[in-house]
């Protein structure tokens, strides 16, 4: 019993000594946290990812290497995009809405290749629309340009639009569609919370020109990164990949028509050359018109009898006979060969 009392007494003494230690430790921990707050800055973004825009970027079969590289460049510039396998040419475009639903995407960029040389780009809001079809021209990829500009992978871009987008209704619709597709959602898990580049969309010659620039904070300058491409609008549809036509570009000329015009111009040039040659042949065959002799032409002509005779006082130099000289040279060479052969025989 005495031993048990001693143990309890000892334990009670320890508790009394350590009674004030938790308060002291909590105060020290608070001071340490405040010091760390002063040293380390807080997180850049504390919000939630609310804008759930997801873009499906893929193509049809038959695209060339430049289109494939452009598609890959767009995927790297847009962290909220998703890839997919190439679609068969026989499938109808309405199937893309089902693919978007399976991939949980509400926007789509679809590259359609025709004749292995023409590239069309569909931009659509799936599944209800609207959608727009473009002819893609003047493609220059990131690897091809090798510009000095550079930006972080996954960083959010600024979107700069030409003032002409607000003047016409179909351009205003395209502006809203491009904003929803190319703007990276805030707080996206794959994006970085920095803005260091600009996507510019300018209207020139009834076409939309796309450029990507880096923002340099030190000098407040823009340096181009790439890629580059030009979008020639064909039609704007009410639905996704079809439906009633809202707008049709009157200035659009199909690539087939353009190639046909070039061929007709070259054929016209060839025909013109052939016609000129035929006219020249006919002129040569025509009899020449003989003009009557004009006596005034012989006024300053001196007859041969009245011409002064030139006397040569110095004997002219004899002409060099090249054939005789060659024969001499050949004779010498033959004699030398005969001597050499005779010596070698001895």
From TrEMBL:
PROSITE patterns: BRIX
Single GO molecular function: rRNA binding
Gene Ontology annotations for the cellular component aspect, listed alphabetically: chromosome; nucleolus
Gene Ontology biological process: ribosomal large subunit assembly; rRNA processing
Domain Brix per the UniProt entry, residue ranges: 53-242
Stretches the record annotates as Disordered: 1-46, 325-346
Localization terms from the record: Nucleus, Nucleolus
Biased composition (Basic residues): 1-16
Domain of life: Eukaryota
Major location category of this protein: nucleus
InterPro entries membership: Brix (IPR007109), BRX1 (IPR026532)
Keywords assigned by UniProt, alphabetized: Nucleus, Ribosome biogenesis
Pfam families: Brix
Gene3D superfamilies: Probable brix-domain ribosomal biogenesis protein
Family: Belongs to the BRX1 family.
Role according to the record: Required for biogenesis of the 60S ribosomal subunit.
Protein name: Ribosome biogenesis protein BRX1 homolog
Species per Swiss-Prot/TrEMBL record: Cavia porcellus (Guinea pig)
